[in-house]
């Protein structure tokens, strides 16, 4: 059998809902034609989401602190404990950010920071409870942070999550996964939690009935086999979550992958560009069919590749990213609000639909004027550096209210 | 090579299955066939056809120049002044490149004399490099400022040493651009012809402009490449700029419209960004500009994506599973020269 026929057979298997082996995943990643991968991934996406809708969420990425003792080699964001660049957001600043988010039509905050050597579960429970008091969905604290909190507090991961959940934690983001193999983690983040520890947090959260998201950051020091092993481990964990839920949707709500940005901190041996992003994304969609939703990473790839990604397996445009500090620390700063994200989705041939964390549709609320934006943003306009034209397109219902 | 099984299914569901064999043979499509591609609703189907045609034309090769960008303001353009010319040679020499390009904000009423001086200075400083400069729009502006015509301006620049014309975003959205390039062919130039489009503008009129280039290529045979050119660079607000899927469709149509008449389709990565450019290598493009060699007179230009250094551009091409080959401004494969 020729290589091309073998690849065709694997693609047919995946499109029919078959489960790929790691060897088949690797064969696709290394040898398949980019457009054929896109077509197969889009077929899987269409089977899972037959409607021509692309969803998105209005939320804000709040980085409550940059103090971190994990010293990941790729990270331009952190400040070492005691360093003068370190910050912790005051409660007043947090309140303002949350209220701005709500005024911008958002009802979720994605809150992450570093791994702090001293803050225990009580400190974090207070932080979460404060955020929750505004009535927003709190999607916060990635696996490395939760592992660190458990270690500092001297309690189990399960108990840590239970206490944070009792304080108001709604769901756990997939940050800090990078690549879930020891080879890759040793190369870029040797002090951060191990692959097993990352998975443990999500396993415990799923067991408690919480939903989480899964991520992959690639294009640094990992090999193709590492990417496939990463997908394989996520798939196995999701299998467990779904089995335990007895037919209900459970575990990871979504998968998001993005490219490492080699701008400041760590030079990649091979810079990954649009083709490599779309190739890996499509293979992930084919491999990870038990995770329903795939987000396009327009924040790192830009809106244009973000639009193309909607034809390579994605059914979601992710977050409007009202604020993003970690990626912009690496020199990449694409940003959109609802009117732009609507335009981007429509121009790519799909119907935009705002959603909540659980991918349930919600009514879209646009900002109704640039003045309104300035009013909301107040003295911190750089957080929302959008052109005034961004607000020309408003729905009739909003225009009528003006 | 025929598209894979899944892509044949995509072509069938987009109603384009009958075009697959012709694309594989590199045959150009007729206007009504191109319009079917425009309205097929599947960027992947359009790209699959164009990718088959590209493979027929170029195999795995993607051409790219290393561009020595000479920023016009600041260059001591005075070819007759030996001291200043040697200053220019010092500044522009020693930088390994494969073409030179004059860039920068030029005054709208740039006199022909100054344009000629620029060309002569660069050619004296770097006689080893072919020179790309002045868009069709600029040629018209110089002619207007001179009270002469584009044919005269093109002839004078040619005699001064200009090798080929340049392009600029926003250009190529009417037939005048193609008319100026036709005049250039009469003067002995070979050029890459931009065919521009705006958001929502990859339509029948865009196809007609491509067909006008095809007509010019059939008559003169001097079209090196077609450059599908969005009117805004990547950094523009998504409310104003073209969609990535529109760029993909425009690139595919360029390849499918030109067939055997024009060998290359060029992506301007200064405009599209290199991330999207890497995808366009699978949608008909086999040539990319945007790798800039260093020069103290050539800082990255204001808006738009940052240029890549030549090494990174090579890697972007390789990562897209293509073989990079260096070319000069006239699309001849070459090695880099340091002057
Ligand atoms: S990536 Fe996260 S864990 Fe690693 S150094 Fe940066 S803030 Fe700390």
What does this 3D model show about the protein?
The complex is a heterodimer of chains A (402) and B (339). By secondary structure, chain A is of the alpha/beta class. Chain A has a single domain (49-365), classed as Aldolase class I (TIM Barrel), CATH 3.20.20. Helices cover 45% and strands 12% of the residues of chain A. Chain A contains 16 helices and ten strands. Chain A has helices spanning 3-15, 22-31, 34-48, 91-103, 121-132, 143-153, 157-167, 182-188, 195-207, 224-245, 274-287, 298-309, 326-329, 338-347, 370-377, 396-401; strands at 53-57, 60-63, 108-112, 137-140, 171-172, 211-218, 252-259, 293-295, 316-319, 351-354. In chain A, the strands form three sheets. Chain A has a four-stranded parallel sheet with strand order 5-6-7-8, with helices on one face. Chain A is globular, with a radius of gyration of 20 Å. In chain A, 53% of the residues are buried. With 339 residues, chain B is an alpha/beta fold. Chain B has a single domain, classed as Aldolase class I (TIM Barrel, Alpha-Beta Barrel), CATH 3.20.20. In chain B, the strands form three sheets. Chain B has a four-stranded parallel sheet with strand order 4-3-2-9, covered by helices on one side. In chain B, helix 11 (244-258) links the parallel strand 6 (223-230) and strand 7. The longest helix of chain B has 17 residues, at 204-220. Chain B is globular. At the A-B interface, helix 1, helix 3, helix 11, helix 12 and helix 14 of A face helix 1, helix 4, helix 11, helix 13 and helix 14 of B. Residues 68, 70-72, 75, 77-78, 114-115, 144, 189, 192 of chain A line the site of iron/sulfur cluster. Iron/sulfur cluster binds at residues 68, 70-72, 75, 77-78, 114-115, 144, 189, 192 of chain A.
In short:
The complex is a heterodimer of chains A (about 400) and B (about 350). Chain A is α/β, with parallel strands linked by helices and about 400 residues long. Chain A has helices spanning about 5-15, 20-30, 35-50, 90-105, 120-130, 145-155, 155-165, 180-190, 195-205, 225-245, 275-285, 300-310, 325-330, 340-345, 370-375, 395-400, and strands at about 55, 60-65, 110, 135-140, 170, 210-220, 250-260, 295, 315-320, 350-355.
């Amino acid at each position: 059998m020729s290589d091309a026929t073998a690849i065709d057979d694997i693609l047919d298997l995946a499109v029919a809902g078959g489960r790929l082996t790691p060897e088949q995943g690797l064969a696709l990643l290394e040898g398949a034609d980019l457009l054929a991968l896109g077509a197969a991934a889009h077929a899987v996406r269409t089977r899972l989401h037959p409607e021509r809708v692309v969803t998105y969420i209005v939320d804000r990425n709040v980085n409550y602190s940059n103090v971190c003792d994990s010293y990941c080699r790729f990270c331009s964001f952190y400040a070492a404990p005691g360093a003068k660049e370190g910050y912790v957001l005051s409660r007043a600043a947090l309140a303002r950010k949350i209220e701005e988010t709500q005024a911008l039509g958002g009802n979720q905050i994605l809150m992450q920071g570093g791994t702090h050597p001293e803050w225990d579960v009580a400190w974090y429970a207070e932080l979460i409870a404060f955020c929750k008091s505004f009535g927003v969905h709190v999607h916060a604290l990635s696996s490395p942070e939760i592992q660190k909190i458990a270690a500092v507090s001297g309690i189990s991961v399960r108990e840590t999550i239970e206490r944070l959940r009792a304080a108001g934690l709604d769901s756990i983001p997939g940050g800090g996964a990078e690549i879930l193999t020891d080879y890759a983690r040793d190369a870029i983040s040797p002090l951060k939690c191990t692959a097993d520890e990352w998975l443990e947090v999500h396993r415990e959260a799923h067991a408690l009935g919480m939903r989480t998201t899964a991520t992959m950051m690639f294009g640094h020091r990992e090999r193709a086999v590492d990417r496939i092993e990463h997908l394989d481990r996520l798939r196995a964990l999701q299998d467990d979550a779904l089995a335990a839920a007895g037919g209900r949707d459970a575990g990871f709500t979504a998968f998001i992958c993005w490219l490492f940005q080699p701008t400041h901190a760590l030079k990649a041996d091979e810079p990954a560009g649009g083709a490599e992003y779309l190739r890996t994304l499509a293979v992930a969609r084919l491999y990870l069919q038990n995770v329903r939703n795939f987000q396009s990473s327009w924040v790192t790839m830009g809106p244009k590749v973000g639009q193309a990604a909607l034809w390579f397996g994605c059914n979601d445009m992710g977050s409007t990213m009202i604020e993003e500090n970690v990626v912009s620390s690496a020199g990449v700063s694409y940003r959109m609000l609802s009117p732009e994200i609507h335009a981007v989705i429509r121009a790519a041939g799909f119907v935009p639909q705002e959603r909540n964390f659980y991918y349930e549709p919600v009514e879209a609320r646009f900002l109704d004027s640039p003045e309104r934006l300035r009013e909301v943003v107040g003295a911190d306009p750089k957080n929302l550096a959008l052109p005034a034209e961004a607000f020309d397109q408003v729905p009739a219902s909003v225009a009528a209210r003006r | 090579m025929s598209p894979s099984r899944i892509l044949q299914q995509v072509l069938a569901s987009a109603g384009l299955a009958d075009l697959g064999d012709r694309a594989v043979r590199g045959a150009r499509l007729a206007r009504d066939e191109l319009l079917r591609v425009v309205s097929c609703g599947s960027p992947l189907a359009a790209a699959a056809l164009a990718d088959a045609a590209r493979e027929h034309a170029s195999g795995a090769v993607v051409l790219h120049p290393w561009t020595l960008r000479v920023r016009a303001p600041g260059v001591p353009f005075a070819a007759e002044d030996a001291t200043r010319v040697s200053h220019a040679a010092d500044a522009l020499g020693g930088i390994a490149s494969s073409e030179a390009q004059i860039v920068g904000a030029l005054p709208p009423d740039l006199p022909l004399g100054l344009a000629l001086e620029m060309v002569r200075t660069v050619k004296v400083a770097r006689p080893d490099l072919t020179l790309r400069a002045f868009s069709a729009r600029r040629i018209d502006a110089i002619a207007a400022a001179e009270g002469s015509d584009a044919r005269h301006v093109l002839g004078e620049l040619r005699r001064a040493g200009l090798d080929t014309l340049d392009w600029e975003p926003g250009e190529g959205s009417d037939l005048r651009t193609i008319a100026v390039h036709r005049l250039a062919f009469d003067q002995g130039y070979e050029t890459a012809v931009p065919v521009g489009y705006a958001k929502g503008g990859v339509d029948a009129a865009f196809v007609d402009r491509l067909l006008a280039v095809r007509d010019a290529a059939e008559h003169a045979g001097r079209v090196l490449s077609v450059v599908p050119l969005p009117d805004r660079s990547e950094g523009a607000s998504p409310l104003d700029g073209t969609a990535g899927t529109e760029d993909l469709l425009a690139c595919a149509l360029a390849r499918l419209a030109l067939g055997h008449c024009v060998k290359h389709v060029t992506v301007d990565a200064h405009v599209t960004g290199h991330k999207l450019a890497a995808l366009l290598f699978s949608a008909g493009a086999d040539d990319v500009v945007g790798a800039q060699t260093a020069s103290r007179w050539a800082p990255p230009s204001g808006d738009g994506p940052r240029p890549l250094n030549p090494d990174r551009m090579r890697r972007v091409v390789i990562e897209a599973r293509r073989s990079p080959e260096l070319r000069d401004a006239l699309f001849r494969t070459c090695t880099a020269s340091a002057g």
